[in-house]
Amino acid sequence: MGLLRPVFSRVVALVPVVLGITVLVFALNAVALGDPARVAMGQRADAAALERLRREYALDRSLPVQYAAWLGRLARGDLGESFREQRPVGEVIVERLPATARLALAATLISIVLGVGIGAVAAVRAGSALDHLLMGVAVLGISTPVFWLGLMLQLVVAVRLGWLPVSGYGDGTLTHLILPAFALGALHTGTVARMTRSSLLEVVRQDFMATARAKGLSEWAVLGKHALRNAAVPVVTVVGIGLADLLVGAPLTETVFAWPGVGRLLVAAVGQRDVPVVMGAVLVFALVYVLGNLLVDLAYLVIDPRIRDAARA
Amino acid sequence: MTRAALAAALLVVLVASALSGAAVAAKPGGTLRMVFMADPPTLDPAHATDLTSSAVIRQVFDALLELDEKLVPAPALAERWMVSADHRAYTFHLRRGAKFHNGREVRAADVKYSFERAARGKRPWVFEKLVGAREFIQGGAPEIAGVRVVDDATVELRLERPFAPFLHLIAYDAASIVPREEADRRGAGFASHPVGTGAFRFGSWRRDDQVVLERFPEHFRGPANLERVVFRVIPAEATRFNEYAAGQLDVSDIPTGRCRALQADPKLKADVAIWPTLGTSALRFNVERAPFTDARVRRAIAHAIDPAIIVNRVLEGCVAPAQGIVPPVLAGWTATAKRLPLDRERARSLLAEAGFPGGRGLGPLAYHFNTGDLNQRIAEALQAQLKEVGVALELRRLDWAAHIKVVDDGSAGFFRQGWIADYPDPENFLTVLFHSRNVGPPGNTSRYRNPAVDRLFDEADTMAPGAQRVKRYQEAEQVILDDAAWVSLYHYASRALIKPHVKGLERSPQSTAPEFLAPLRKVWLER
Question: pTM of the prediction?
């Protein structure tokens, strides 16, 4: 019960953040050159038809009125209608959300499993050639552009070896997910590995680690039972921050792998000046980001009793 | 007959069979895997304005007419038609027994409903020549008076005044025939669940992933060869190529900058298909914006540009440099126009005459173009060419939405703009792009106003097809090029990769890879 209040106050604090983001995105759309109605008309636009379309899209109203109308609809759970697809934005986003969620979750899982594994091995073998090699790989992962890595994976694994499909969603099968998830996950694996290594090296110097070893536990048992849990807080922080990397990387990864997600939708919507979709997609990304960070904060409470006690106090 | 004579006769038959395409029987069945660069925004013919949407719509729907391989109007849902002596009334007799995908037979009332529905869509210009269409489009009339249902199988269309390419408009996908009950019942949802009469019916559509069409066995021409067509949606050029190389696509486009390499590639050179299409890439001036109000400045720039360098170095020689505005591949057209030739001395003297000797006083000129590697490289080539006559170009790269905005509102003085024909007629290039009534978004973004040219267009647009009509357009085209309101660079070509087992894929000048607007009912797979 004691934890509910801090959680509630954090959730309430998120509302102005998300609203602020929507104001910013709306303002950016307003100052960007381009007329959604004109884009929709193709290469040859009839003046009367253009005017009619502008009225249909409510673009003939002032900007504050347009934003207020959007906000009003949002309060009723309605994100408006896509200019381009002429369907409710909610429907447009919801049908793409599962693909992005699958990709982001798989990429996160890959970055945690590989990152923590590589970091732990590097920490245990600190200073060795293996440590240098693994940290070199980690830096390579951080600095490799996701689109380049994606295309290389396609060329080698899909075209040359024929092991996996090049791109697309398939029927939602795992084989289609592996390459894009790996390309996106690699972006963050290096960061997680480096943080795991440095946190573990910090923890292994603590007195309680000597006590654990004195009890006769093996080095891997000491690492697994005592060190990793104590090193987890900064690693969880990095995983949380990594959500931002995933959100930045999703549009690129989805484009390279023809993955039908919200990131690609956002890129196309910006190009078409489909403002309702841009607003809706950004809102989803903002919510994912702030809720992801909230989850990270909650994870601290689970992992570290000191933080839990401080929150209760 | 002796044995030798019999053998000789057999040999003749065999050789004739081998040489004749008809001897190779089309094999039914199979799935054709094609690709789009972007998701179609809609599958509703009333709302489509892009090639991707049209590529699907042309398979799912039929119009009264269609264009044959030579782009001549041919029967489709209408089996025959008659034109009145004054070329203002067209009577179409519908084919008996043609059915929509829901099983209902097509009636003349469907034609009236479809035209009126589409006239209030995104391509109203397709119908505006009909009597009463303008009033209807603007909401001032309950129907288009010029569309009359004579009986269940006959419809009459009346025009305000004769319009030579009218049959092309009737064959255009905006004029597709839709079933009223389905369009009304589904409302906006018709765009995602289209019902037509086409050789393929709608199967499924996962947005941003793929559109699947299934063979419609009751098509009035008989079932198509292919069982299914899958259009994958793959935005990244490199990924499309990888999919093709991995054997997952039957047709794709040639990536930018890979045309020559693929023509020399021992594995892929047999798959390379390049053919001219109805489009021209050009540079345009806003003639109402200084310094381009002065024809000498425009002519100087035209004289300083060598399209051959751009074609050979940037486009790898895979397209043809342009002399005129109308592509020579247009049926019935004889290309006579000559662009202002490369002549740097003449360019310098024109600049001096205009008060800008050596380009001094002209300042850097802003050149607007839309985002794309190819456009960037062309812009850089132009920058280098104009520098040689003392003109500095400042490159302004914007995405399409922003580019079209500055072009339409006249704030861009010098800009890139191509044109792809909506239908194969010189009117669609010349009148649309240069008549003074079309200034701005309807097509004349040069804001060019020349009463003599307008007069030529007004005469030619209403004349019967033939040499006299072509002559008027040719005359107008040369005047526009001499006035340097438009500088032609090159005519578009479709550059595709097509697997050898794909047979019967029409490569008409209106069929632009990778979308292919040609009917896929003729395609079959040899494997």
Answer: 0.89
